[in-house]
Amino acid sequence: MNALPSDKTLVLKVIPMPADCNANGDIFGGWVMAQVDLAGSVLPARLAQGRLATVAVNQFVFKQPVRVGDILSFFSAVTRVGNTSITVEVEVFAERFDAQGAYVKVTEASLTYVAIDEQGKPRPVPKPQAQ
């Protein structure tokens, strides 16, 4: 069992359903990837203060299968802010249907997003205001 990360923010919780299964009865990897992309965009959206686009999946590791009924918790942290881009790490933990309260890491990923304007062109990420 894994401890939940204390250095990341909980950005999404979701329960996969039977329609999300592959022929083996596990959840489609593509479904998990889509959820990771959504979760990964939460913190960059706050920083970008506008539209952004996923431009790279730098790393994606499936560590354990995801099953119907698992409660998935997605944790994210910004690892880099460039002029127009923001890179995040996402860790996904499953709370198994038959083992409530115990968590196992099922996926980890690194993604890069780019702030874009109304024409879809890269634009600078706003600099944080000094407090």
What distinguishing features does this structure have?
alpha+beta, Thiol Ester Dehydrase, Chain A, 131 residues, elongated
Describe the structure.
The chain has 131 residues and is of the alpha+beta class. It has one domain: Roll (Thiol Ester Dehydrase, Chain A). The protein is 15% helix and 40% strand. The protein is built from one helix and five strands, in the order βαββββ. It has one helix spanning 29-48, and strands spanning 9-14, 52-62, 71-81, 85-95, 103-115. It has a five-stranded antiparallel β-sheet with strand order 1-3-4-5-2, covered by helices on one side. It starts with 8 loop residues before the first strand and ends in a 16-residue tail after the last strand. 26% of the residues are buried. The mean pLDDT is 93.
Briefly say what this structure is:
With 131 residues, this protein is an alpha+beta fold. It has one helix and five strands; from the N terminus they run βαββββ.
